[in-house]
């Protein structure tokens, strides 16, 4: 169990993102070729370091003003349960609080593993139901 880690306010590189994503089992969730552009479109990012090693990541996407969505929050399995995920989430929320000009909406889709972490940090379904669908590109 780690007791000291450092947070940096930056996005994971595509290589770091892929390594962490694969380590937490998100092997089929991403098109790796398009991830550099996807990451570059983020509003903000955070990484957790143990020494020089990136052991956690998270990012925000959205309009940077009113709507923010937490994406790709992940911690390497051997580092889980030490507060790193909570610390990264709070760092992203601090970013929203310090940059949004008025009250912002922060949304996310939670995995089963992460529901309690998000609930402890004030997230709730409220009176809405989160929904999503996948859209395939139009073939030329
Ligand atoms: C979800 C995830 C990001 C959480 O990261 P984490 O670093 O393990 O999160 P935390 O350590 O802050 O919190 C996890 C648990 O450890 C406990 N914990 C927090 N700080 C702790 C500490 N210092 N010592 C011991 N336990 C601690 C928390 O109580 C929490 O328990 P609970 O959520 O079961 O109630 C991580 O498990 C993960 O990467 N999972 C796979 C990917 C995933 O599902 N991501 C979520 C996408 S929505």
Give your account of this protein's structure.
This protein has 140 residues and is of the alpha+beta class. It has one domain (6-120): Gcn5-related N-acetyltransferase (GNAT) (Aminopeptidase), CATH 3.40.630. The protein contains 4 helices and 5 strands, in the order βααβββαβα. A 5-stranded mixed beta sheet has the order 1-2-3-4-5, with helices on both faces. The longest helix is centred in the middle third of the chain and has 16 residues, at 84-99. The N and C termini lie far apart (51 Å). The model has no long low-confidence stretch (mean pLDDT 96). Coenzyme A is lined by residues 24, 73-75, 80-86, 110-111, 113-114, 116-117.
- Which molecules are bound besides the chains? coenzyme A
Q: Tell me the distance between the termini.
A: 51 Å
What's the helical proportion of residues? 25-40%
Oligomer: single chain
Radius of gyration: 15 Å
What fraction of the residues are assigned to beta strands by DSSP?
15-25%
Mean pLDDT over all positions: 96
**What number of structural domains do the residues give?**
1
Predict the CATH topology: Aminopeptidase
Number of strands: 5
Number of helices: 4
Write the CATH homologous superfamily: Gcn5-related N-acetyltransferase (GNAT)
Biggest beta sheet summary: 5 strands, mixed
| Spatial shape | globular
Secondary structural class: alpha+beta
List segments where confidence is low: pLDDT < 50 over at least 5 consecutive residues. none
Question: Tell me, what is the CATH class?
Answer: Alpha Beta
Report the order of strands and helices: EHHEEEHEH
Q: How are strands sequenced across the largest beta sheet? A: 1-2-3-4-5
Going by CATH, the architecture would be: 3-Layer(aba) Sandwich
């Amino acid at each position: 169990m780690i007791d000291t880690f450092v947070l940096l306010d930056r996005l994971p590189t595509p290589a770091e993102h892929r390594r962490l994503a694969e380590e937490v089992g998100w092997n089929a969730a991403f098109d790796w070729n398009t991830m550099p552009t996807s990451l570059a479109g983020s509003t903000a990012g955070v990484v957790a370091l143990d020494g020089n090693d990136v052991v956690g990541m998270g990012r925000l996407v959205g309009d940077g003003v009113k709507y923010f969505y937490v994406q790709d929050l992940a911690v390497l399995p051997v580092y889980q349960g030490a507060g790193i995920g909570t610390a990264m989430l709070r760092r992203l929320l601090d970013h929203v609080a310090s940059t949004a000009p008025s009250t912002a909406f922060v949304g996310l889709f939670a995995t089963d593993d992460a529901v309690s972490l998000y609930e402890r940090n004030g997230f709730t379904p409220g009176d809405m139901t989160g929904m999503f669908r996948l859209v395939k590109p139009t073939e030329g």
